[in-house]
Amino acid sequence: MRTLLLAFAFLPALAMAEVSLITEAFKIVPVQQADGSVVEEWQTPEKVVPGDKVGYRISYNNNGKEAAEGVVINNPVPAETIYIANSATGANSTITYSVDGGQNYGKASELTVTAQGNTRAAKAEDYSHIRWMLTQPVEAGASGKVEFKVRIK
Amino acid sequence: MQTIKRTPLLLAGMLASASGWAATSVGTQIENTATATYYAPSDATSQLTVSSSTAFVVQEKIDVAVTSSTTNALEVQAGSTAQVIEYTIKNTGNGDETFDLTVSNGTGDAFDVTNVKIYLDDGVPGFQGTETEVTQINLTPEQATKIFVVVDIPVAQSIDDIANIEFNVTSATPGAAAGNQGDILAGQGDGGTDAVLANNAGGAIKASSYKVTATAGLVVITKSILSTEHPTLGSVKVPGSVVTYQILVQVTAAVNNLRIVDDLPLNLTYDAGSLLLANSNLAGTPLTTTNASGNTDSAADADAGRYDANAGSNGRVTFVLGNQAAAGDYTIQFTATID
C-alpha cells in the first residue's frame, strides 16, 4: 500500500520536466606537467586551508520527459570565501552577479558598490551571488554544467 | 593641498582591503548550495525549484611571519653586553599554534655573539632586563607578539667585524620542523583536523647581524649576580639569602696600575673571607678554591684582594691587579648576605 502511494506521488513530476542538480567542490591544485607547464587540477576537497582555491561544479540533468525552460541557476558565494574574477563558466548561459545579497543581478561591468558615500565599480570580492541564465531549454534527458572558483579567506 | 593629502589615505585603504582577510578558522565548515528554477512548457505558470549542497571542513594552516626592528646591522661596541634586537612574530595561520624559538650563530662571518638569550616582551616599551626568558610561545590566529634577542659582543673584536645570527621560529607541531611547504600532518590540526604547512614549512627564519663600530675600552668590566641562595629556603631573595657576585675583568691591551673597586649596595653585609680571583674568564661558573685562589680581606698581604668595611657607604671590595703587560681576563667573586 505504501509503495503504491509513493509511486502515485511521483507520477506527475515524472510526466513533466524534472531537473536535478549535483553540487561538487574541488580543491584546485597547480600541478607541474612533464613539459614544464603548470595545469590546475581539480582534486577532492581534502586538506583545504586558508588561501587555497576551490572550484565548484554544478551539474544539471533533466530526468523528465519534457524540456525545462527558463532555467536559472543561482549560487551564493559560500561564506568565508571570495569569488575569483571571471572564473564562472557555463555553456549557453548569461552570467550575472549580485552585490546585494541576491536581490539584484547585473553584469560584472555594470555593478557598483557604495561604501561611505563613495560609489565605485564592484570587484570580484564584492560579489555575494552568481547567476547563470540558460539561453536554451534543457531538453528531456539532456545535461550540462556550470562552474566557478573561489579562494578561501 | 587637499588632493595631495587625500591620496595616501586612499592608497592605504585599497591596500588594506586587498590583503586584509582574517584567515578562516580551522574547523569551519564551508557549505555551498546551488539552486535552479525552471518551467515546464506544459505549465509555464509553475516555477519549479531544485537545490543541491556540498560541504567541506577547513583544515589548519600552519604559518608564521617574523619581522625585526633592524633591517641593517645593529651597530655595537666590542665588549658591550645586552645588545637587543626586537622581533615581531605573528601567527598567520588559522589555528592556535605553539612556536619554538631558537637563535643560531651564522657562518661565514667574523665572530659569534655570546650569552644569547630570548625574552618575551612584557608590554612595557623597550627591553628592561626584567622580562621573562622564553623558548616557546603560543599564538592564536592573527595574534602577534614581540620578542627580544639579547646578546653580548666579545671584547676582542675589531672595527667592521660582522656577526650574523638567525632567529628561528618553528611550529612545535610534531613533524613541522622537518617538513616542507605543502606537507600534510595528519590529525595534527586543531580539533582533529589535518595540519598543512604553509610558507617556510611552518617556520620562519629572520637573519640579523651585528657590526662592530667601536672597539672595546682598554678594560671591560661586567658585573653579574651568579646566584641568590637562602640556606634553607632555596633560590629566593629574602633576608639571610647569600648573593654571589661575579665581576669579569677583560683587559684588551696593556694597562698599568689596574685596580677594580666595587662598593657594596646598602642592606647587604659582606661575607668575610669570600674573595676569590681567577686569572681567566670563568664568568658564569661558580668560583671555588679549586678553580680560583682565595684572597684574604686584608690589605696588608701580597694577594690582590681586600675588603674595607669603612670605605664607601656600605663597605668596599678592591682588587689591585697592577700592571698588565698584555690582554687577558680575570674573574672576581665574592658573596654578601641580605640584611
- Assign the CATH class of the largest domain in chain B: Mainly Beta
User: What integer value in Å does the Rg of chain B equal?
Assistant: 31 Å
Number of helices of chain A: 1
CATH homologous superfamily descriptor of the largest domain in chain B: Immunoglobulins
- In this structure, how is the largest beta sheet of chain B organized? 6 strands, antiparallel
CATH fold assignment of the largest domain in chain B: Immunoglobulin-like
How does CATH name the architecture of the largest domain in chain B?
Answer: Sandwich
DSSP E strands of chain A, number:
11
Strand percent estimate of chain B: over 45%
- Helical/strand content category of chain A: mainly beta
Average pLDDT value of chain B?
86
State the CATH architecture of chain A: Sandwich
Q: What pair of chains forms the biggest interface?
A: A-B, 42 and 40 residues
Q: How much helicity do the residues of chain A have?
A: under 10%
State the CATH class of chain A: Mainly Beta
Give the ordered list of helices and strands of chain A: HEEEEEEEEEEE
* Uncertain runs of chain A: 1-15
Q: Total domains of chain B, how many? A: 2
| Ends apart, CA distance between termini of chain B | 68 Å
Short description:
Chain A is mostly beta strands and 153 residues long.
